[in-house]
Design brief:
Layout lengths: L17 H10 L2 H12 L6 H8 L3 H14 L23 H10 L1 H14 L5 H12 L5 H17 L8 H13 L5 H24 L9 H12 L4 H15 L4 H14 L4 H7 L1 H6 L13 H15 L2
Length: about 325
């Protein structure tokens, strides 16, 4: 295609500031640019699923793109389309007669109760029966999916080291999440569990890189990590940024750390090796601030990070 000046058709006009254009071009994320254009065309309104449909991206890709826009300071508030209020995330109160009638006449629910009790190793209380019936009747989750949900909640409880079985209130929250995610088959449930495992592993690696040992990442910290990975940073780079932040400020300040990451991104530095070669501070300090557990970033490390992000995005 020949270089030159072109006249663009303008049935309607969308204007963005020069600063926004520079940030979008500099971030190197086509998904972020498309998402920003969608928001502009919609008059500032944003609906993640609608944006994914109109741009040909997945919901996970749009969520990552939105995180990049937040990181760049181009959006500050998520605004969704006005819709009818969602049903409250609590199953309705069923009468004892309704549940007993279903146990007597509904073979599927009876088998479900037997399997859940076997999985938990005890009988269900009246309140637990009501909530379980809500998963089955109100949320309309298939019995085999409910059983997998219960097992997933148990494994999550064990992973956190609580030493107790999960409450049915917690299971109810997960059940609503699965319904919103459209998880109505064993395959969809297994895919969700794999994605959550990949996401948890990624956040766990990021927490170690940022020297967070005694807690999980907060939601705000997870958004920062998502945006950094979307921009192509490796865990080694995150570790160096965290170390520099702590060295210069005495604490792990996410805004300060994010400014470092944005500076590196603008210079095209995304791995520890690139930073040590191309960042003036790293050159002056001779790499003294690089944490010992990340002194070498191999191609395998980078590929592992890319695969983890891909698993999250392909949700």
């Amino acid at each position: 295609m020949a270089n030159g000046n072109y006249v663009l058709p303008a049935p309607e006009k969308i204007e963005i500031t020069g600063e926004a254009a520079r940030k979008l071009i500099g971030c190197g994320s086509g998904d972020a640019a498309l998402t920003y254009l969608y928001i502009m065309q919609s008059g500032g309104r944003f609906d993640c699923e609608d944006c994914a449909s109109h741009t040909g991206r997945t919901v996970s890709q749009i969520e990552s793109a939105y995180a990049v826009l937040e990181n760049l300071g181009l959006v500050t508030k998520r605004v969704v389309k006005e819709t009818e209020p969602e049903r409250p995330e609590e199953v309705p109160q069923y009468t004892t007669e309704e549940i007993q009638r279903e146990l007597k006449n509904g073979e599927s629910f009876k088998r479900l109760v037997d399997e859940v009790q076997r999985t938990l190793g005890r009988l269900l209380s009246g309140d637990e029966l009501q909530r379980l019936f809500g998963f089955y009747d109100y949320l309309e989750l298939p019995c085999e999916v409910i059983v997998l949900l219960v097992r997933y909640c148990i494994s999550e409880s064990q992973r956190r080291g609580s030493g107790r079985m999960p409450s049915f209130r917690y299971m109810e929250k997960v059940a609503y999440t699965w319904r919103r995610e459209g998880i109505f088959t064993i395959e969809a449930a297994e895919s969700y569990i794999e994605r959550e495992s990949a996401r948890r592993d990624t956040y766990g690696e990021a927490a170690k890189a940022m020297r967070i040992r005694d807690r999980l990442l907060t939601d705000s910290e997870k958004k920062y990590v998502d945006s950094w990975l979307a921009l192509g940073f490796t865990m080694g780079a995150i570790a160096v940024a965290a170390d520099r932040t702590i060295t210069q400020t005495g604490k792990l300040g996410m805004r300060y750390m994010n400014s470092i990451m944005n500076s590196w991104h603008g210079k095209g530095l995304h791995t520890q090796e690139e930073i040590e070669r191309g960042d003036s501070y790293a050159v002056r300090s001779g790499g003294r601030n690089a944490p010992p557990q990340h002194t070498e970033v191999t191609a395998r490390d980078a590929e592992k990070n890319r695969e983890a992000l891909k698993r999250i995005k392909e949700g």
